[in-house]
């Protein structure tokens, strides 16, 4: 699955598979402006750290094209473009790949500072396409390295969706599962439903079912019982930001899964590209945690399930401490504790 993020250069339009509609419908949303890109990220038309980074690359292209078409006469396009990139970069606070994607495109623009908008556009578009292709290749490498962490016959529990839909294709956590299957191992998957947005029930189950991979959905609060009964042999999750010390932010509820895995002696792996590691963030306490709209908790579809006037907590992420993580699976191999030196070495510091 590599067509859920695609760009039509003739129409200068980004097409995103609207993940809000899955599994019932496969709708593609056309994105043509900076505002539309930011909204698609914020309402989770597209989500998952690597997919957010790739979308940001194409968003930088759309922002420049929008200026080329409609900049007022006499305005400084470079100043306007810099502000546009700052707005895009701030669209979601936790997933560091958003900043990574914008910074990569900004650096390319700076390296071609002498170009005018018309000449810069194809340069940026080529880079965005390169980012998309690279992400698929990186995920396949993550899968290849991660396959060694799964034993033949294992049932793997995963939380949220860290599959093809959360990347440009193949996936991180689900890439590890795909890699194990391609290595000839028999693997089953339990997908936590992942309240409140139900990424596991709606998205992980959908894409694994599409690929014919054995998957079963469980309520989030069944995790302890599943582990107690010996129904889980391994946990693999993705990440939205990994701090320099190995603390990892992922979808809310991941920390609880990690604590249960440690209690029951079950290996707990985080699968993510090196671009998700943020060496500027020293530890998990410094990772900003996004809070999302109340409605995601108070409603299921159009039906209210929380009484009117009752406030809710809707933190989108939590942070799993490094000492709960068995290994961090990257495109350069499986990093092991102590994570500070292992991460520095992997990043080439």
UniProtKB/TrEMBL annotation:
InterPro entries: IF-2B-related, IF-M1Pi, IF_2B-like_C, Initiation_fac_2B_a/b/d, M1Pi_N, NagB/RpiA_transferase-like
Annotated signal peptide: none
One Pfam family of this chain: IF-2B
Active site, per annotation: 240
Presence of the UniProt keyword Isomerase in the record: yes
Coiled-coil intervals: none
Catalysed reactions listed for this entry: 5-(methylsulfanyl)-alpha-D-ribose 1-phosphate = 5-(methylsulfanyl)-D-ribulose 1-phosphate
Root EC class: isomerase
GO MF: S-methyl-5-thioribose-1-phosphate isomerase activity
GO biological process: L-methionine salvage from methylthioadenosine
Keywords linked to the UniProt accession: Amino-acid biosynthesis, Isomerase, Methionine biosynthesis
Keyword Isomerase: yes
Pathway stated in the Swiss-Prot or TrEMBL entry: Amino-acid biosynthesis; L-methionine biosynthesis via salvage pathway; L-methionine from S-methyl-5-thio-alpha-D-ribose 1-phosphate: step 1/6
Site (Transition state stabilizer): 160
Sequence positions that bind substrate: 47-49, 92, 199, 250-251
EC number: 5.3.1.23
Domain of life: Bacteria
Function: Catalyzes the interconversion of methylthioribose-1-phosphate (MTR-1-P) into methylthioribulose-1-phosphate (MTRu-1-P).
Annotated NCBIfam families: eIF-2B_rel, PRK05720.1, salvage_mtnA
Family to which the UniProt record says this protein belongs: Belongs to the EIF-2B alpha/beta/delta subunits family. MtnA subfamily.
Name of this protein: Methylthioribose-1-phosphate isomerase
Source organism of this protein record: Desulfovibrio piger
Gene label: mtnA
